[in-house]
TrEMBL record:
Keywords: Cytoplasm, Methyltransferase, rRNA processing, S-adenosyl-L-methionine, Transferase. CDD domains: AdoMet_MTases. It comes from Arsukibacterium indicum. HAMAP family: 16SrRNA_methyltr_J (MF_01523). This is Ribosomal RNA small subunit methyltransferase J. The gene is rsmJ. The lineage of its organism: Bacteria, Pseudomonadati, Pseudomonadota, Gammaproteobacteria, Chromatiales. Belongs to the methyltransferase superfamily. RsmJ family.
Length: 250
């Protein structure tokens, strides 16, 4: 895992810098090379000093696709909602064991689920924490943010030390099909910063142990099953497939 430093700047207060260092073990720098985190217009962002056209990567639940989906999306008819069971019941507890930038978790929380977001990568977890901080301060989003809780730890640890949850959601990295030059910018950043999730198969058995109702695994349409285990059913979305392993009815 590549260590991503935090760039010191006037916009980064000493208190917030100390919080990020303590919570996520980030180191600091004044002259970054390659990927680094820094504060930009009130938000923690991921930038690359060698790729000026890359643009800032951040968790922003208030704009763009996330909020559009919250306001105009398919709601309970979205494939992810059907896969998790939110079309039947809204107050479901979900452990999202591979939270990433929290987009799926935000959709689930917008539909009423209480979501624990587990992320092991320190830089990604710091971006998530910052996105949740801003969402909690936004009157339009605070009720959704209240249903989202971050845990910065490996998924295995969370799966083995968690109170019962209805659903475990897994979305490990999957090798992109496109040639690297065509891979979207954010995906390239993720592949650089996070790498590949080689232990993904090992998460299915503990997830099935913990989930009271079901485990949902998000996969690209062309990908095989996680741990080669056939699901009970699959829900096919526009860009992805959700493999559903049912333990009990929702
Ligand atoms: C494809 S991304 C998830 C994207 C996410 N579903 C979203 O909507 O933004 C996978 C993420 O899972 C994290 N991850 C993978 N394996 C993990 C593990 N064993 N424990 C904790 N986090 C893990 C990676 O660091 C990465 O950030």
């Amino acid at each position: 895992m590549t260590a991503i430093p935090l760039r010191l700047s006037a916009e980064l207060t000493a208190d917030y810098c100390q919080y990020l260092q303590q919570q996520f073990g980030l180191t600091t720098t004044t002259a970054p090379a390659g990927w680094y985190l820094c504060m930009q217009q009130g938000a923690l962002v991921l930038l690359n000093a060698d790729l000026p056209k890359q643009g800032a990567i951040l968790v922003d639940f208030a704009s763009g696709a996330s909020n559009y989906r919250r306001q105009h999306g398919g709601g309970k008819s979205e494939a992810i909602a059907k896969a998790v069971g939110l079309n039947k019941k809204s107050n479901i507890s979900v452990l999202d064991a591979t939270a990433g930038l929290g987009r799926d978790a935000f959709v689930l929380a917008s539909l009423g689920a209480a979501v624990t977001l587990v992320e092991r990568n320190p830089a990604v977890a710091a971006l998530l924490a910052d996105g949740l901080r801003r969402a909690a301060a936004d009157p339009m989003l605070s009720s959704v943010a209240d249903r989202m809780q971050l845990r910065h730890c490996p998924a295995l640890q969370a799966l083995q030390n968690s109170t019962a949850v209805d659903v475990v959601f897994l979305d490990p990295m999957f090798p992109a099909r496109e040639k690297s030059a065509q891979v979207k910018k954010e995906m390239r950043a993720f592949h650089d910063v996070v790498g590949s999730d080689d232990d993904a198969d090992s998460l299915l058995a503990p997830a099935l142990q913990l989930a009271q109702k079901r485990v949902v695994v998000k996969r690209p349409g062309y990908a095989g099953w996680l741990a080669d285990k056939a699901p009970t059913m699959a829900v096919t979305g526009k860009n992805n497939r959700f493999d559903v392993y049912v333990n009990a009815a929702i």
